[in-house]
Amino acid sequence: MRLNILVFDCGLNYAGSVILSDSIFLLKPNKPLIHQVVTSYRSNSRIAQSVQKNRASVKHSTRKPWVQKGSGRARAGMSSSPIWRGGGRAFPSSLYKNYSVKINKKVYKKALQYILSEFVTKDKLYVVNEVLALSTKAGLFLNSNKHLQKTPSLVVVEKSEMCVELFLALRNVRGISTMTYAEVNPYNLLLFNNAFFTLKGILKLQESL
Question: Most CB contacts within 10 A, which of 86, 93, 123, 148?
Protein backbone atom coordinates (compact mmCIF):
# COMPACT_ATOMS: atom_id res chain seq x y z
CA MET A 1 0.00 0.00 0.00
CA ARG A 2 1.04 3.64 -0.34
CA LEU A 3 1.01 6.34 2.33
CA ASN A 4 1.48 10.02 1.65
CA ILE A 5 4.66 11.66 2.91
CA LEU A 6 3.54 14.94 4.44
CA VAL A 7 5.81 17.91 5.15
CA PHE A 8 5.32 20.85 7.46
CA ASP A 9 6.59 23.68 5.27
CA CYS A 10 3.18 24.37 3.75
CA GLY A 11 0.84 22.95 6.35
CA LEU A 12 1.19 19.24 5.63
CA ASN A 13 1.10 19.46 1.87
CA TYR A 14 1.51 16.33 -0.25
CA ALA A 15 5.19 15.59 -0.96
CA GLY A 16 5.33 11.98 -2.15
CA SER A 17 4.53 8.40 -1.18
CA VAL A 18 6.16 5.46 0.57
CA ILE A 19 5.45 1.76 -0.03
CA LEU A 20 4.55 -0.17 3.12
CA SER A 21 3.70 -3.83 3.66
CA ASP A 22 0.04 -4.80 3.33
CA SER A 23 0.55 -7.64 5.83
CA ILE A 24 1.41 -5.10 8.57
CA PHE A 25 -0.54 -1.93 7.80
CA LEU A 26 -3.66 -3.37 6.17
CA LEU A 27 -5.13 -5.90 8.60
CA LYS A 28 -8.63 -6.27 9.98
CA PRO A 29 -8.62 -5.39 13.71
CA ASN A 30 -8.70 -8.21 16.24
CA LYS A 31 -10.08 -6.53 19.38
CA PRO A 32 -9.86 -9.59 21.69
CA LEU A 33 -6.14 -9.94 20.94
CA ILE A 34 -5.55 -6.21 21.43
CA HIS A 35 -7.42 -6.37 24.74
CA GLN A 36 -5.29 -9.31 25.83
CA VAL A 37 -2.04 -7.46 25.14
CA VAL A 38 -3.20 -4.21 26.75
CA THR A 39 -4.38 -6.08 29.86
CA SER A 40 -1.01 -7.83 30.05
CA TYR A 41 0.84 -4.51 29.71
CA ARG A 42 -1.16 -2.93 32.53
CA SER A 43 -0.78 -5.99 34.73
CA ASN A 44 2.99 -6.03 34.22
CA SER A 45 3.22 -2.39 35.32
CA ARG A 46 1.16 -3.02 38.45
CA ILE A 47 2.99 -2.89 41.79
CA ALA A 48 1.64 -4.53 44.94
CA GLN A 49 0.95 -1.90 47.60
CA SER A 50 -1.45 -3.60 50.00
CA VAL A 51 -0.02 -5.59 52.93
CA GLN A 52 -2.03 -7.72 55.36
CA LYS A 53 -0.93 -9.87 58.30
CA ASN A 54 -1.32 -13.62 58.53
CA ARG A 55 -1.95 -15.42 61.82
CA ALA A 56 1.80 -15.63 62.50
CA SER A 57 2.27 -11.85 62.15
CA VAL A 58 -0.51 -10.51 64.40
CA LYS A 59 0.23 -9.74 68.02
CA HIS A 60 -1.60 -12.27 70.20
CA SER A 61 -1.26 -14.54 73.19
CA THR A 62 -0.47 -18.20 72.71
CA ARG A 63 -2.66 -19.10 75.68
CA LYS A 64 -5.64 -21.31 74.93
CA PRO A 65 -8.80 -19.13 75.28
CA TRP A 66 -10.72 -21.83 77.17
CA VAL A 67 -10.48 -25.50 77.92
CA GLN A 68 -10.90 -28.00 75.15
CA LYS A 69 -13.95 -29.74 76.62
CA GLY A 70 -16.77 -28.94 79.00
CA SER A 71 -17.39 -25.26 78.24
CA GLY A 72 -20.04 -25.90 75.59
CA ARG A 73 -18.26 -23.65 73.09
CA ALA A 74 -16.40 -24.57 69.96
CA ARG A 75 -12.79 -25.61 70.26
CA ALA A 76 -10.26 -22.76 70.04
CA GLY A 77 -6.49 -22.90 70.14
CA MET A 78 -5.29 -19.28 69.72
CA SER A 79 -6.82 -15.84 69.30
CA SER A 80 -4.84 -15.38 66.07
CA SER A 81 -7.22 -17.63 64.15
CA PRO A 82 -8.59 -16.06 60.95
CA ILE A 83 -12.17 -16.65 62.15
CA TRP A 84 -11.60 -14.49 65.22
CA ARG A 85 -11.88 -10.72 65.34
CA GLY A 86 -8.37 -9.28 65.44
CA GLY A 87 -6.90 -12.48 64.03
CA GLY A 88 -4.72 -12.84 60.96
CA ARG A 89 -5.95 -13.18 57.40
CA ALA A 90 -6.14 -16.64 55.89
CA PHE A 91 -4.76 -15.51 52.51
CA PRO A 92 -3.18 -12.07 53.11
CA SER A 93 -1.99 -9.76 50.35
CA SER A 94 1.76 -9.21 50.18
CA LEU A 95 4.26 -6.78 48.66
CA TYR A 96 5.86 -9.73 46.90
CA LYS A 97 2.76 -10.64 44.90
CA ASN A 98 3.46 -10.86 41.19
CA TYR A 99 0.75 -9.57 38.83
CA SER A 100 2.70 -10.08 35.60
CA VAL A 101 1.05 -11.84 32.66
CA LYS A 102 3.21 -13.37 29.95
CA ILE A 103 2.51 -12.50 26.32
CA ASN A 104 4.30 -14.18 23.43
CA LYS A 105 6.39 -11.99 21.13
CA LYS A 106 4.34 -12.99 18.08
CA VAL A 107 1.10 -12.00 19.82
CA TYR A 108 2.65 -8.68 20.92
CA LYS A 109 3.80 -7.83 17.39
CA LYS A 110 0.45 -8.89 15.93
CA ALA A 111 -1.41 -6.57 18.30
CA LEU A 112 0.85 -3.70 17.25
CA GLN A 113 0.16 -4.48 13.61
CA TYR A 114 -3.61 -4.47 14.22
CA ILE A 115 -3.44 -1.07 15.93
CA LEU A 116 -1.28 0.42 13.18
CA SER A 117 -3.70 -0.94 10.57
CA GLU A 118 -6.57 0.71 12.40
CA PHE A 119 -4.67 4.00 12.39
CA VAL A 120 -4.22 3.70 8.62
CA THR A 121 -7.86 2.82 7.88
CA LYS A 122 -9.09 5.73 10.02
CA ASP A 123 -6.58 8.19 8.45
CA LYS A 124 -4.83 8.76 11.76
CA LEU A 125 -1.32 7.79 10.64
CA TYR A 126 0.91 10.24 8.75
CA VAL A 127 4.43 9.94 7.35
CA VAL A 128 6.43 13.16 7.46
CA ASN A 129 9.76 14.37 6.15
CA GLU A 130 12.23 14.04 9.04
CA VAL A 131 14.41 16.95 7.90
CA LEU A 132 11.59 19.47 8.07
CA ALA A 133 10.10 17.84 11.15
CA LEU A 134 13.31 18.54 13.06
CA SER A 135 13.43 22.21 12.20
CA THR A 136 13.23 24.73 15.03
CA LYS A 137 9.92 26.01 13.70
CA ALA A 138 8.28 22.57 13.72
CA GLY A 139 6.32 23.43 16.85
CA LEU A 140 4.66 26.37 15.14
CA PHE A 141 3.66 24.26 12.14
CA LEU A 142 2.29 21.48 14.34
CA ASN A 143 0.38 23.90 16.55
CA SER A 144 -1.35 25.58 13.64
CA ASN A 145 -2.09 22.45 11.61
CA LYS A 146 -5.64 21.13 11.37
CA HIS A 147 -4.49 17.49 11.64
CA LEU A 148 -3.21 18.09 15.16
CA GLN A 149 -6.39 19.57 16.58
CA LYS A 150 -7.40 16.13 17.85
CA THR A 151 -4.79 15.87 20.54
CA PRO A 152 -3.04 14.00 22.03
CA SER A 153 -0.76 13.25 19.10
CA LEU A 154 2.36 11.12 18.83
CA VAL A 155 5.51 11.88 16.82
CA VAL A 156 7.80 8.90 16.20
CA VAL A 157 11.41 9.30 15.02
CA GLU A 158 14.25 6.94 14.21
CA LYS A 159 16.95 7.78 16.79
CA SER A 160 16.89 9.09 20.33
CA GLU A 161 19.08 12.05 19.34
CA MET A 162 16.38 13.12 16.88
CA CYS A 163 13.77 12.58 19.57
CA VAL A 164 15.58 15.04 21.87
CA GLU A 165 15.80 17.68 19.13
CA LEU A 166 12.18 17.17 18.22
CA PHE A 167 11.15 17.36 21.87
CA LEU A 168 12.87 20.74 22.20
CA ALA A 169 10.95 21.95 19.14
CA LEU A 170 7.59 20.62 20.37
CA ARG A 171 7.84 21.09 24.13
CA ASN A 172 5.58 24.15 24.05
CA VAL A 173 2.86 22.37 22.07
CA ARG A 174 0.32 20.86 24.42
CA GLY A 175 -0.83 17.27 23.84
CA ILE A 176 2.11 16.16 21.66
CA SER A 177 4.56 13.42 22.70
CA THR A 178 7.73 12.20 21.00
CA MET A 179 9.44 8.81 21.09
CA THR A 180 11.61 6.52 18.99
CA TYR A 181 10.22 3.65 16.91
CA ALA A 182 11.65 1.13 19.41
CA GLU A 183 9.58 2.67 22.22
CA VAL A 184 6.26 2.30 20.42
CA ASN A 185 4.02 -0.32 22.05
CA PRO A 186 0.31 -1.21 21.72
CA TYR A 187 -0.70 0.40 25.00
CA ASN A 188 0.98 3.77 24.38
CA LEU A 189 -0.22 3.88 20.78
CA LEU A 190 -3.86 3.61 21.86
CA LEU A 191 -3.48 6.73 24.01
CA PHE A 192 -3.13 9.00 20.96
CA ASN A 193 -5.66 10.17 18.39
CA ASN A 194 -3.14 10.31 15.55
CA ALA A 195 0.50 9.40 14.94
CA PHE A 196 3.19 11.12 12.88
CA PHE A 197 6.09 8.89 11.79
CA THR A 198 9.26 10.08 10.16
CA LEU A 199 10.11 8.21 6.97
CA LYS A 200 13.05 6.33 8.49
CA GLY A 201 11.10 5.76 11.70
CA ILE A 202 8.21 3.93 10.03
CA LEU A 203 10.56 1.90 7.80
CA LYS A 204 12.54 0.79 10.87
CA LEU A 205 9.32 -0.12 12.67
CA GLN A 206 8.22 -2.11 9.64
CA GLU A 207 11.50 -4.06 9.70
CA SER A 208 11.08 -4.87 13.40
CA LEU A 209 7.57 -6.22 12.80
Answer: 148
pTM of the model: 0.70
Query: Are 86 and 130 in the same domain?
Result: no
Q: Which secondary structure element, helix H or strand E, spans residue 7, and what is its range?
A: strand 2-7
Q: Which residues contact 166 (CB under 8 A, 6 or more apart)?
A: 133, 134, 138, 155, 157, 178
- Block means of pLDDT (10 residues each) for the chain, 209 residues, are 50 62 79 88 85 87 89 89 88 85 86 86 76 54 56 76 67 75 85 81 81
Q: Which residue range(s) make up the domain with 85? A: 49-97
188 and 105 part of one domain: yes
Q: Are residues 118 and 203 in the same domain?
A: yes
* Sheet with 176-180, side-by-side order of all strands: 13-19, 2-7, 125-128, 194-198, 153-157, 176-180
